[in-house]
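Entry 14: structure prediction run for ANR26 protein. Input pasted below.
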Amino acid sequence: QVVELSQQLTMESKRSMQLEAQNRDLQEELSTLRGNCEELETSKCQLKEELEKLQHRLETNMVDHQQMEQYKREVEERADEDIRKKLLEVNLFLHAQAASQDRLEQIRSSHHASLRNQLKERIRDFECELNRIRNTQQEISFSREREMAELEMYTELYLEEVKTRRCLAKKLER
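Run finished. Output tokens:
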């Protein structure tokens, strides 16, 4: 039990130190936030003063309301005209791009068709060449077989001739 209590005490002391460190960090953060708050208050006061100055300037430098409305209408009309021009340019550009895209697709499809035809032709050429090689190989094979058969036949005939000569040679010697 004493060991458990000492372990608990050690754990609690570690936890206490961690909490103290965390408390210090939080206090530092709080003091930083207080400093920021004071800066914000100062800034708020400065902004209020600036706002008052701007309001005063606005009141003293106010342009005639009719002139302002006229200027606003002119600006809006010019902006609308500019927008219409830009939209027209964009439409023209999009049409040109679509036409270019169509042309590119046509070129691609014709190129693919051409490549397909070339590949088919090459495949046909290779197949013909392969058939020719196979036929040549078969002819060579048949020719070899014929030659081997003839060779065997001549060998047998030669061996028979050799036997016959030996027999005749023996008869002649007797």
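Notes: The chain has two helices and no strands. Will compare against the previous run tomorrow.
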